[in-house]
Task: inverse folding
């Protein structure tokens, strides 16, 4: 069953094209890793999926929510985009935790504001999500009192708080010190084992080999190559993929 | 120097200080409301209102407060709007401070990291929800030091409304001096009272700033 269906997403910044018609289907429980050199459009593509960046055109379906964009976004579409976002967990490179709220309050925010859950119920749900990411003992800490890895794990718990049908990660470990990368990847891997559908933009090759069902290599705003991790990493078909892989070895 | 004369003048000065405090507090509250909404209007670029807000801020910041007071008190009656001295004073002070506060609010809202809005709307919040729950609480903390400045200026500026016969601290001091011929002492007492008022005010805001920054403590 396809959870995500994307057709012909195009985006231009000024006169320079960033996305030149991207198609992507993601099956339920599939883990898709998107790789590529910086400026290849992978982050922009991920942001276009939930309209954090509005594509110039393209059809996007996530779960039951369909957005067809061609030029201006209408009022009805904005509503549909909000509904789509409620079901899509987004994890940012720079965490973007709410600094004036504790870890627990960060995770409660969505259920409280979006779902109007009673505080006690939201508190309990948020507590168990923090346990799940291994931060049960950090509930009342403010983001400034947490390490980068801990902050990103809170951010993942926050993204999970509205029971997303798909999780999107925009370079979740790029802002972390090397020794903190593992704890975050471990949490993502556990989610993969639980069957969460995920699209992950990352530079962590080892992680991609380990967790991804499919690796997509993007360059110049197009998908150059995709396939099983061993296929893309060990037997890349395209010159650009080969060059990228050898440059990162 | 007649010591008893000075003692006798203190109750009157304190009563006039109450007027100064009253003018300051009412004007601060109105100015906060004006400043807050004009800031939102300008950030949201609401059509028409946005232009009106910009003209308002430009005119207020580009003209002296004393002129604004005269226009409101002496000028407006000519087109049928007569306000008593106290109302005129409050109107001038709050319109004036509102323009400055508006800029403080605007800057502090824009100073909140863009990622905060993105995180909020990526959960499915509306722009309004993101503003209310995430952006404004953070921008308020950023705004406090500049708000503090504007409040200090506002308290001092209440002395200007003495020119339209509001019996606040400065006006009362002058009245007492006319009877006692003790300008140095009386004006120094007036200065001391201003200083105490303003110090109390800044202490209050400092405490508020510390309170709202507690999440930043390591």
Result:
């Amino acid at each position: 069953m396809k959870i995500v269906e994307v057709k012909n997403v195009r985006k231009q910044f000024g006169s320079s094209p960033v996305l030149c018609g991207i198609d992507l289907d993601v099956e339920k429980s599939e883990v898709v890793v998107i790789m590529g050199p910086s400026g290849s459009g992978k982050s922009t593509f991920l942001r276009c999926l939930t309209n954090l960046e509005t594509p110039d055109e393209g059809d996007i379906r996530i779960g039951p929510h369909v957005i067809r964009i061609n030029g201006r976004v209408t009022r009805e579409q904005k509503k549909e985009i909000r509904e789509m976002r409620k079901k899509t967990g987004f994890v940012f490179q720079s965490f973007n935790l709410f600094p004036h709220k504790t870890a627990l309050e960060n995770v409660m925010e969505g259920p409280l504001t979006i779902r109007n859950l009673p505080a006690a119920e939201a508190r309990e749900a948020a507590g168990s999500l923090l346990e799940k990411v291994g931060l049960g003992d950090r509930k009342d800490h403010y983001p400034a009192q947490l390490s980068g890895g801990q902050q990103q794990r809170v951010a993942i718990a926050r993204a999970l708080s509205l029971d997303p049908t798909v999780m999107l990660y925009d370079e979740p470990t790029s802002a972390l010190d090397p020794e903190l990368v593992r704890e975050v990847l471990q949490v993502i891997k556990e989610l993969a084992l639980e069957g969460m559908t995920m699209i992950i933009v990352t530079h962590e090759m080892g992680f991609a080999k380990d967790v991804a069902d499919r690796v997509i290599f993007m360059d110049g705003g197009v998908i150059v190559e995709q396939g099983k991790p061993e296929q893309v990493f060990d037997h890349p078909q395209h010159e650009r993929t080969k060059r990228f892989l050898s440059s990162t070895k | 120097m007649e010591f008893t004369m000075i003692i006798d003048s203190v109750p009157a000065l304190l009563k006039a200080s109450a007027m100064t405090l009253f003018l300051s507090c009412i004007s601060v509250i109105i100015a906060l409301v004006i400043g807050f909404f004009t800031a939102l209007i300008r950030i949201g670029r609401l059509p028409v209102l946005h232009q009106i807000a910009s003209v308002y801020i430009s005119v207020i910041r580009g003209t002296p407060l004393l002129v604004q007071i005269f226009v409101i008190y002496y000028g407006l009656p000519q087109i049928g709007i007569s306000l008593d001295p106290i109302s005129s004073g409050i109107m001038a002070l709050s319109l004036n401070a509102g323009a400055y506060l508006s800029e403080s609010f605007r800057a502090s809202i824009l100073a909140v990291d863009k990622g905060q809005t993105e995180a909020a709307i990526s959960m499915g919040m509306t722009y309004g929800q993101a503003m209310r729950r995430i952006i404004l609480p953070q921008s308020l903390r950023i705004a406090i030091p500049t708000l503090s400045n504007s409040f200090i200026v506002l308290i001092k500026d209440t002395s200007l409304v003495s020119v339209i016969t509001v019996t606040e601290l400065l006006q009362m001091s002058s009245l007492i001096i006319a009877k006692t011929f003790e300008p140095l002492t009386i004006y120094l007492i007036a200065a001391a009272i201003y200083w105490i008022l303003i110090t109390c005010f800044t202490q209050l805001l400092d405490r508020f700033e510390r309170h709202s920054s507690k999440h930043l403590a390591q």
User: Anything to note?
Assistant: Chain A touches chain B through 27 residues (CB under 8 Å). The longest helix of chain A spans residues 178-193. Chain A is about 40% helix and 25% strand. The two ends of chain A are 36 Å apart (CA to CA).
